[in-house]
Amino acid sequence: MNRNELRKADINLMVVFEALMLERNVTRVAEKLFLGQPTISSALNRLRTLFNDPLFIRVGHRMEPTARAEEIIQHLSPALDSLSSALSLTHDFDPSISTMTFRIGLSDDVEFGLLPPLLRALRQEAPQVVFVVQHVDYWRIPDLLASGDITVGITQTRGLPANAKRKLLRHIRPCLLRADASDTPLTLDEYCARPHVLVSHTANVAGFADEWLAEVGRKRHVVLSVPQYSSLPALLAGTDMIASLPDYTAQAMAASGNLFCEPFPFQTPTLDLSMVWLSHVDTDPAERWMRSRLEAFMSDKLPAPGSKQL
């Protein structure tokens, strides 16, 4: 391989090129890289000269890559990942004095149930660090990691990129939440007879619990579907409605004393909560520290009794 070719290259240009491949829009790339739009346009012209190819063709409001651009990115992204990893080895990380901004992705059940204890600890350990939390779910997390909008995410996961790393944090034990106190938990008949609130980010009126009930020949009646867990305390108060949700979220909501958490009245499969990140930040000292804190406060080392995979 001719290393002399590297003398023609500018790493900053390569970063712009990768961002253009992800965003397909000069304005969004300028905003993401904190540069002016003329700077990005100038960089694109230099890239076209360097690679002797138009690289991007304007189609409406989007910049569609040429075949040469698609070929280049296949080689360039792994190279930039390796370079980022190498550069990360040149510095240490001291959370007590750091002013870094960490961008993490959390599903909203994790944000409500597991984030507060972590933040209380980090305010002592890293008082000047900034945390930006984005909502993630299993279908959004690959794109958010690839675009760099987040560097680590915690949610249920499916279909991760080839360069993603995954660590199981805990098994999710489903619980139900109710506003009316009782000395005895609901029976299966009572559970099916009650009106249900479903949390669905895709505006569905059926979820995992309906699949599990169908396996035992039962049904429930969903009367309300909402997009996030945080509204449940206000919605359930003073009603006979119940909601099904992860154990850690139900326990956090019940801690206020106005709601009551209890186990499901039937056996359920156990879902997995995982932490995922891309390989290029694997050795970065700051990111390793962040992942260690997320794991310490959001994992459950004890496996769920009788757990099984879906």
TrEMBL record:
The keyword Ligase does not apply. It holds the Pfam family HTH_1. One of its GO terms (molecular function) is DNA-binding transcription factor activity. The keyword Cytoplasm does not apply. PROSITE patterns: HTH_LYSR. Residues 10-66 form the HTH lysR-type domain. InterPro entries: LysR-type_TF, LysR_HTH_N, LysR_subst-bd, WH-like_DNA-bd_sf, WH_DNA-bd_sf. Keywords: DNA-binding, Transcription, Transcription regulation. Belongs to the LysR transcriptional regulatory family. This is LysR family transcriptional regulator. It comes from Pseudomonas libanensis.
